[in-house]
Design goal:
Layout: H1 3-14, E1 27-29, E2 36-38, E3 44-55, E4 61-71, E5 82-89, E6 92-103, E7 108-114, H2 115-118, E8 128-135, E9 141-147
Antiparallel strand pairs: 1-2, 3-4, 4-7, 5-6, 5-8, 6-7, 8-9
Length: about 150
């Protein structure tokens, strides 16, 4: 079993539920100049949420929970295993977390960031917005955007 398949199997077994729907698609400009055209080969993000939670087992601390669901026209198994997450405050990029989020074979999106090590305070979660970059093995990318909760 490859590491990629092993990580995806573990994530698939977690069974986290996605919280907020967003259904974003990557867009590219068409040659006609009439506006953006949807890339039919790009993955889709059907749900995506970033919420601040308190961890109470053992040490007590706050963390940002990333959860959602993605798919791809070629099947969820063709999504890349890791996705990048960008954090914004008042419209300005404050942090990029590369390969932080894991995507299971079934398209389940899972990740977390500790408040005390990330600099993202949970005192006012709605001040933050997040962009998730999901890609497939063919290099197509979709960006999902949500406000922190």
């Amino acid at each position: 079993m490859s590491l990629k398949r092993g990580v995806r199997g573990v994530i698939s077994a977690l069974g986290l539920v996605a919280l907020v729907a967003c259904g974003d698609k990557d867009t590219v400009t068409d040659d006609s100049g009439d506006g953006p055209a949807v890339n039919p080969d790009a993955p889709t993000i059907t749900s995506f949420a970033v919420t601040c939670e308190q961890h109470t087992t053992g040490d007590t601390y706050y963390f940002w929970q990333i959860a959602g669901q993605a798919n791809d026209p070629q099947g969820a198994e063709s999504l890349t295993t890791f996705a990048d997450l960008e954090a914004y405050r008042m419209g300005g990029l404050i942090e990029t977390f590369e390969d932080l989020v894991v995507i299971g074979e079934d398209g389940q999106i899972v990740g977390s960031i500790r408040e005390d090590t990330s600099g993202l305070s949970c005192s006012a979660p709605s001040e933050f917005s997040f962009k998730l970059f999901v890609s497939d093995e063919e290099g197509n990318v979709t960006v999902g955007e949500v406000e922190g909760a």
